[in-house]
């Protein structure tokens, strides 16, 4: 048995559609769009909300799900399909990277698919 091979397999990242999971809890969640890589420390996650996209924001043939991640200084909105599959890995601190893929590729039933990521500063009334 080659020790290099067993070592690299043991620490290899697991990739599941638009979401990468890694065995040790990551320190950051990275959000990858067409031209940006944005990282936010995992410990800054305050809460999240999973819902359907509100009627005014719906696009015909567009994704039905919305997952809002509320961090201490940022709010991240994820649009896509089957985003409820992200809740378990999110709660257990396993998500290392989220990719936005606008065009659906071969989609597996058990995978979440993120089509758009919007990151904005979090409103803090105490700063006024």
Question: How would you portray this structure in words?
Answer:
The chain is mainly beta. It has one domain (13-122). The chain contains 2 helices and 9 strands. It has helices at 3-10, 87-91, and strands at residues 14-16, 19-21, 28-32, 37-41, 45-52, 65-71, 74-81, 95-99, 113-121. The protein has a 5-stranded mixed beta sheet, with no helix packed on it. A 4-stranded antiparallel beta sheet has the order 5-6-7-9, with no helix packed on it. The longest helix is centred in the first third of the chain and has 8 residues, at 3-10. Mean pLDDT is 82; it is low at 1-11.
Largest sheet: 5 strands, mixed
Low-confidence stretches: 1-11
- Please, how many helices? 2
Taking the alpha carbons of the first and last residues, their distance comes to 63 Å
Strand content: 35-45%
Nearest-angstrom radius of gyration?
16 Å
């Amino acid at each position: 048995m080659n020790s290099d091979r067993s070592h690299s397999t043991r620490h290899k990242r697991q990739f599941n559609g638009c979401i990468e999971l890694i065995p040790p809890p990551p320190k950051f969640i990275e959000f990858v769009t067409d031209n940006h890589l944005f990282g936010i420390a995992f410990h800054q996650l305050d809460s999240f909300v999973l819902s359907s996209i509100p009627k005014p924001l719906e696009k015909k043939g567009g994704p039905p799900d919305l997952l809002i991640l509320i961090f201490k200084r940022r709010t991240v909105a994820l649009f896509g399909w089957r985003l409820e599959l992200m809740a378990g890995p999110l709660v257990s601190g396993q998500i290392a990277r989220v990719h936005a893929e606008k065009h659906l590729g071969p989609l597996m039933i058990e995978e979440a698919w993120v089509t758009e990521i919007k990151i904005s500063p979090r409103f803090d009334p105490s700063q006024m």
